[in-house]
């Protein structure tokens, strides 16, 4: 039942804000939506579209607070970047110091914010990647315990498959998690049945994740170097962050 009271109200307002933000970015990137195959394929391979679709789904179903983690993280960097580039310069215009040297718009605080964003951006993106793995475990267990729909882990698995393909942070998170699980299941104390089940699961996941994704003819697949999220400290926004348009 769709509820707009109490905790669910704030949960859905948060997601509606994310939906509007991503919608604006996508509209600026792609223009008026079309139904031709080339447009749809290009849109579905865009990270902003992927996060928009997932946000719409999370907003509609029974609230799962953990799913807000990536969006809250992106919003923090969005807010800091907007403060540095728009709010502070409007409050503290460029001028001159007492010794005659020019002072930048926004003052020294803009440099502090930029330095903090640059220092913590990769760390935050790694955090988001691990959080998305945890979210998948949550919705998978929730489906097995009938706490959420079976559609949730299926949809999120496809989302993570795209993230694995397009994001170096997500690939690193999955490889690290798999390495840890490999060590646990190879330990002599691990029951053979658990080890066998784990190997079967990994084989299934590997087959699914390695399925070739189709692209438009003449549109190259993103390479590992170009698939990483853009650092906002360099002046461009993250593809997964509705701060700015993609620049890739």
Automatic annotation (TrEMBL):
It comes from the Eukaryota. Pfam families: TMEM33_Pom33. Residues 218-237 have a biased composition (Polar residues). InterPro entries: PER33/POM33_regulator (IPR051645), TMEM33/Pom33 (IPR005344). GO terms for biological process: endoplasmic reticulum tubular network organization; membrane organization. The chain crosses the membrane at residues 12-30, 51-72, 135-157. Signal peptide: none annotated. The keyword Membrane applies. It is found in: Membrane. Keywords: Membrane, Transmembrane, Transmembrane helix. Residues 218-248 are annotated as: Disordered. One of its GO terms (cellular component) is membrane. This is Transmembrane nucleoporin. It comes from Malassezia nana. The lineage of its organism: Eukaryota, Fungi, Dikarya, Basidiomycota, Ustilaginomycotina. The gene is POM33.
